[in-house]
Amino acid sequence: MSDILTTMVLHLRFPDDGWERIARDWSAWWAGELERPLVVLECSEPEDRLKPHFASTFLGNFPTMPADDLLSLFEPRLAATHYLGDSFPRFWPNFGPGIIAAFAGAELHPTAITTWFAPASTGPAAGCHVRMDWHNRWWQRVQEITAAASERWGQQLVVGFTDLGGNLDILAHLRGTQQLMIDLVKAPGEVDRLVAETTAAWLDCYERLYRLLAPAGRGITCWAPLWSPGRGYMLQSDISYNISPQMFARFVLPDLESCCAALDYAFYHLDGRGQLGHVDLLLALPRLRGIQWVPGYGQPAPENWLPLLRRIRASGKLCQVTVSPAGALTITRELGGKGFCFVIDEPPLTPAEGAAFLEQLEREGYDRV
Fold first, then answer.
1. Which residue has the higher pLDDT, 364 or 255?
2. At what angle do helices 188-213 and 137-153 cross, to 10 degrees?
3. Please, which of 18, 41, 288, 324 could form a disulfide with 85 given CB 3.0 to 4.6 Å?
């Protein structure tokens, strides 16, 4: 079966010299040597948008479908995508955020648009532990799909890490969010222990998946459109929206420091204005390479947060934002483009419109500071 899978050819809309250019320009960006922003721009023709968009489906909805059949469902969308700018062909095995909790015993309930977790332990925190079960059906499935995708598509695209989750996010799945909030106040010492166990589990999962992904030689990506030439990941702690900077420093920062120490290209997913109180702590992490700013539902678009973006860049960190073409132009005009990665999302562009936007961005001098 392995010999058959490795012969599967994808007819991708990606230039012949694409991977050489991706490695060159993304590596220069990480090193602070690229005098322009990165632009991740995936386009499709209007008629192709009518095709089933299977790429966003939670794979937990297909727990028993043969891996080969499941991966075949993604190929029409991959083939219809035009990879412009600094985008690259990628496949993300999406089992839902914080899937490590399922490996440790939480019940996973996938739906069409998200996944839910039933807590594994709601009793006293002292009786709770975070232990990986490597025979767990969800770990076996994630490993199976990741390995099968790497074999099937080889060096034609980069297969990403599934969404492992952040330490407190994983604990929230295992304990229940309300119970974890109580634990933080009433049993902080036990949470210290649980956080340490979660970090150890995270690092173990990362290493096991890295050994499956790295041999393809197309670099590393994750659930976010972030490419790196070596060990990289978009770290997160979404539940930190609800805690103080003091709690963040105690319960989250040590985990981030440990993960950053194990990674060469670590980013942080700063999700929502409730996390803005943690920015100083994040900017002070020496091995954290950058911050992805996501304002959150109902909030102004990223180009309306120029003081925050300026602060991130002034610290020496890189910055990724998901913006419209107009938003990317605004940020470039106001702050310069160097050190930014613009993920162009809405509105959807045709390949011709995408190419015209890239030309406009270049004409305006995107290395301006």
1. 255
2. 30
3. 41
